[in-house]
Amino acid sequence: MVGLEMQVAGAVAGALTMYLGVKRYQSGCGVQLVAATEPSDSFMAQCGSANMRALLETHAGGLLDDQMVPTPWLPSGMLQTVYCTMVGLKTDASTRVAYRRELLTLADQGTVSVDWHNEGRERVALVVPGLGGSSYEYHVRALAQRLGARGYTVAVMNHRGSGRTPLTSARLYNAYDTEDLAAVVRHVAAQPGVRHLVAVGYSLGANLLTKHLGEAGAGALIRAGVAVCCPFDTAVAGRALDARGWLNDHVFQPNLVATIKRLVKRNLAVFRAADLAYDLDAVMRATRMSQLDNLVTAPTYGHKDCWAYYAAASSAPYVAKVLRPLLALNTADDPITPMEGVPLEAVRRNPHVAVAVCRHGGHLGFFTGLKPRIWYLDHVATFLDAALAHADTQCASGADEGPRLATPADAESFAFPFAPYAIQLDFMQRLFEAIEQRSLGVFESPTGTGKSLSLLCGALTWLRQHEQRLAKQTEVADDPAAADKAGKADEPDWVRAYARRERQRKREDAAGERETRQRRYDAWVARTRRREAAAAGQGAARPNKRRRTDGGDGDDGLSDSDLLVADYRSGSDGSDGSSDADDSDGEPEEPRGTQIVFASRTHSQLQQLMGELKRTAHAQGLRALTLGGRSQLCAHPRERLRPAAQLNERCLAMQQTRAERCPLLPARRTPLLDFRAAAHAHGPADIEDLALIGRRLHVCAYYGARAAAPAAHLVAMPYNVLLSAAARQAMHVDLRGCVVVVDEAHNLVDAVLAVHSPVLDQPAVDRLAACVAAYRSRYWRRLSPENTRHVLQLGALLRALTRYMRGVAQAHRGAEGASVRVLRVNAFLHDARAEQFNVHAVARYLRVSQLGRKLNMFHDRHASDAAAGPPDAAAAQQGATSPAAAIAALESFIACIGSPERAAARVVVAADGGAARLKYLLLDPAEPFAEILRDARAVILAGGTMAPADDLVRQLRPADRPDDARLFSWPHVVDASHVCATVVASGPTARPLRFARADLAGSAGLSDAGLALAALCRVVPGGVVVFFPSYALLRRAHALWQESQVLARIEKAKHRVLAEDNSRTTGGAAEDILQEYSRCVAQRGGAVLLSVVGGRLSEGINFSDALGRAVVMVGLPFPNLGDAELRARLDYCDAKEESGDMGPRARAMYDALCMRAVNQSIGRAIRHRNDYAAIIFFDVRYAEPRIADKLPRWITDAGSAHASPLKPLPFGPALAQIAAFFKRDFASK
């Protein structure tokens, strides 16, 4: 009996010991979270939560509470990893999925495949496998099945040659280049019905995903990501994988190397056809991945060996730039990606990123349970659900703003400076609604209707009420009684209490946190002022003054160290190199509220806008300013006289030199803070106001305006700043949540295309090639190896471009006229023999390293040395210009062609006058404009003549954006009886008036037009403005009418005929013609001005009252179909029909280009309520429906007291109608 008791006791003790041992073992299997604890402004804006830690703890807490207890017979990381490779192609109930394969052809004609599962859902999960992986791996199929069950469409990316994807180019995938992934992301996001895109990456795929999210920043199409076993530092992972050991030598390395060898062996013909410098025999003999990378990957991307490639491929430097929720799952026992490679400090500083570390799991294993199953599947799905749901409820829908604002019903609510017309009140109300409803709105209101005032008052009224709404929401959150009233009356107390707590939490994230951030920023300002005041009082040196360590300053204050490029590490910094050196470390981001961003074409228009704003009650307490470039705001007595490009480079260079630092930009922050305070206290400030503030405070107004912009209520800027992402970043403009208003938006499409179509000419390339060669020759011993490699690559690319452009110019030499070819980007790179260059890497190096700035400084030093040297050297240097403009053009051009090729991009190669010119031609303006539409709360496009507005929207709205545009058009303020619109179908000799290209062979039509104009001048008082489609037709008509004495008959009635001439009508010459025309009308009672549609006198000129009693349109200004760039746009817009005619979309765009120019020209007349004029069309085609429908509404509505304005009339009845118009209605005026 005693023995039995002893046995029982022993069994119990053993069981208890085992239980306690298991518990002790499990206690070490929890998940350790590494994440930031500080809140983030941008994260709040995008994800609605303070940080990733809060998101995980609040909405995905199961991950943090769970334990990753490994399968008992797979207790180590090595065993977990080996088992993962063994079950790679195993199929069980948890991994059965059905795929549909899609092949994608990439920019270099390479191919990747996308395997689709569970298609047709709004949420898509993109899965990126690792090295040698594909959609058929066990863990990929398990994840695809689990995400499909959770309502996701799953798209698995198979890299080049992987998963039986055909290899169609000799370029293999790698951990360095994210272009393939970016192309797949864009393709998947553009699929119909896709609302949200998330991504999961494995191992090398996780490295690519992290790097891509860092490169894309706030513009990432991926809303949330998970990185499983991401190496982060691929050099650390490379050393771990290359270390000698039984498992590495006999399992991991052979498995990976065999995968790559199979790929190469299957595609030997592709590699041999590419004629690349690969030793394919050595590749097939390789036994380790480092050998393969030395033979193939490293030389392909310009690295000296595999270790340099591994260092460049690391995603760790990009962790700080990730602005989307990213959860990394890593294990402490991973034999391939050790924890030492995980950038934990960078993770702790970025609230968008979190790393969940498990004690066990190996590399891609995570097997748990007696029957191994993958532990993280549900946790990944739950995190992605939470990230998307939280983003939806907190920011995308705007649901936390509170109740929708009611549209003001009366004029007093808009604080209009005087009693508005009915159309002005309606304009402001519709504008208010469009902003509140987050719309793309197109507003057409003719000149004279107070459009600018209506835009300002409507937008600022919405902003004021929106801020009041946010303040009330904060009060509701802080006041329990108010919160209870906001609930339903029949709710139980506990429901009300819970709802109150939830509202409190959300409001603290949205509004209360903003106040905290504001206090933090104000405290930083106060500390900075005290610290700098104390330093100044002690006579200390300026805080940021650089110390000279090498001596040897030249006469210009520059040393050789100033001219050296800082150490560069490929991929180390994806930030824009335009961020200037004056930005101090440690400065917190200033909290931004909702802003009105107002853009117009010219600074004079923005100055008028600020003048209008000062007339309103909104100006009281309003922080409003105008952003301008250095050329407008620089006050340096000598440097401000430089051309714009040179001034920009010189300004940036002066910040890096001790002797020449600009006195208006001190190293201390206090002067800029003083400027910021003064600009905000000033009220609405235009460029001149800001310049005066800068002179008064002795501070640079350019940098002062940048410092003042984030806290402004309204920021005005020219088109080129709004439309360029780089310019917006340089000017500290953040469009997220802002209201963007574009005035004079009729030519917005042309402006978008111009901003994104840089030009590079042959002399610029020649100068840059010589400058880069001289720079390398001078400093090659002092440049780091990485800089040397990139400078060499840039020099080689420039030499290739030089040879190509010289060849183009030589081939055209002796030919008449200009030669123009339009090529796809890849075809251009092939013809220029530049396809072997990684142009994307060159563009990134130029941007990040700021080499262009150094080259400009180097050129200036060389020029000054030559000027001080022998006379022959000075004479040789005298003709050389600063390369600043050429550098800017090169950076823009390389950045464009270095992007993954788009179907909507071409390169125009032109030769004329013995020199060649390259132009990057953007064909689709919707692509760059999409970022503005995505970030802004609402976008308002306004103008006096927006017709045809539907074409404008069609060109600017991306294909994947819903058709949510709202189009508004108002009549003119003048009564319809003040406008006489007449289509003259025939001339005095009864010959039809039609000026199509085919009708201009003879001169009879032009003769009849001259006779008709002479007759009209006898019945039309005041001035008559005549618009021709082209300068050629104007000159031909002028010569013909002069020869036939028609001009003498016109001058008999109107005293003087003046003609615009494109050979001399520039600047002052155009102003002289306009002044002479105005003088003749005022002093002699009339004159005739012959002008050209699209010329200097067709836009922005006010022909009010007697200056424009009649506007005559001769013909239709259709663009020249022989223009190669226009032809490329039309071909892209719509393929040709079999008959050779344009397709319907191309025809619509072609007609719209013509009619938009016509509408701008006829809008020069009738500028106020009491004005009146006749609009006369000398071409029967104006009565055709496809043309008439595109005329402004105030034209088509005109003529209630006359015959139908769009009915073609013979000359006699037309002349009678026009005479009756002036005699009957206005003879007494």
From TrEMBL:
GO MF term list: 5'-3' DNA helicase activity; ATP binding; DNA binding; hydrolase activity, acting on acid anhydrides, in phosphorus-containing anhydrides; iron-sulfur cluster binding; metal ion binding
Record-stated family: Belongs to the DEAD box helicase family. DEAH subfamily. DDX11/CHL1 sub-subfamily.
Basic and acidic residues biased stretches: 485-495
Composition bias, Acidic residues: 579-588
UniProt xrefs under PANTHER family: ATP-DEPENDENT DNA HELICASE DDX11-RELATED, DNA REPAIR DEAD HELICASE RAD3/XP-D SUBFAMILY MEMBER
Keyword Hydrolase: yes
Keyword Transmembrane included in the entry's annotation: no
Protein name per UniProt: ATP-dependent DNA helicase CHL1
InterPro entries for the chain: AB_hydrolase_1 (IPR000073), AB_hydrolase_fold (IPR029058), ATP-dep_Helicase_C (IPR006555), DinG/Rad3-like (IPR045028), Helic_SF1/SF2_ATP-bd_DinG/Rad3 (IPR014013), Helicase-like_DEXD_c2 (IPR006554), P-loop_NTPase (IPR027417), RAD3-like_helicase_DEAD (IPR010614)
Annotated SUPFAM superfamilies: alpha/beta-Hydrolases (SSF53474), P-loop containing nucleoside triphosphate hydrolases (SSF52540)
Cellular localisation: Nucleus
Gene field: CHL1
Region annotation Disordered: where it falls in the sequence: 473-495, 529-596
